[in-house]
Design goal:
mainly alpha, 209 residues, single chain, 9 helices
Length: 209
């Protein structure tokens, strides 16, 4: 479904406003060349560095490049993305489970549809208002990407959408790094953010392979 601008101008302009508030309008506006071999080599030994405090998300990863161990932290990734790290912004360290208070987002996002759904059934993107459907598509494509179940709203999606709707800050560098870390152990999904690899290497002054 591709909405026409004239018919849905109000909702499309709302999408632009919501993405702009997060600083996301510039993200991925230009495409970078992707080398599948380079991407595979980059992710081959991409390993999260555990946080010092329990229950806190990892904020850096190591990877092997040009015969040496390298470190990619949030500040460096933030510079690649053109976004500052926001320690007070929303961060993520799991996708599939409902955290305390997160279910409160459901009636806000879905409205009356919640009453009609089957108990314990999945939440579907098609039941969201148009502007949230578009924002969700941006999320699962560019921020916290996945190729499976893109027609469903998982717990992490709901928390992000709720924060975006309230215009609360999201720590985008952390979310992007987390999605990269998760890609390593997931055999059902492809390697995420392949277009960022060459930009990360360039920013770290590392040669391409």
């Amino acid at each position: 479904f591709i909405p026409s601008f004239k018919e849905h101008e109000r909702e499309i302009l709302l999408v632009v406003d919501l993405l702009k508030h997060q600083g996301w309008l510039h993200l991925f506006a230009t495409s970078s060349k992707v080398s599948p071999t380079q991407v595979r080599d980059f992710y081959k030994q991409f390993t999260p560095i555990p946080a010092l405090e329990a229950q806190e998300p990892s904020v850096s990863s190591t990877f092997r490049w040009d015969g040496e161990d390298q470190i990619l932290g949030l500040r460096k990734l933030g510079k690649v993305l053109g976004l500052k790290v926001n320690k007070d912004g929303l961060r993520v360290n799991q996708k599939r489970n409902w955290t305390t208070g997160s279910r409160a987002a459901i009636p806000v996002l879905f409205g009356e549809v919640v009453r009609k759904r089957k108990p314990k059934g999945p939440f579907f993107v098609m039941d969201l208002p148009l502007h949230l459907r578009i924002v969700h598509a941006f999320l699962v494509t560019n921020i916290n990407p996945r190729s499976k179940s893109r027609d469903r709203v998982n717990p992490a999606d709901a928390v992000f959408l709720w924060a975006i709707l309230q215009k609360k800050p999201i720590d985008t560098p952390q979310v992007v790094l987390y999605s990269m870390q998760c890609a390593i152990g997931n055999t059902k999904e492809g390697l995420v953010h392949p277009h960022l690899v060459s930009e990360i290497l360039h920013h770290l002054d590392l040669p391409g392979q």
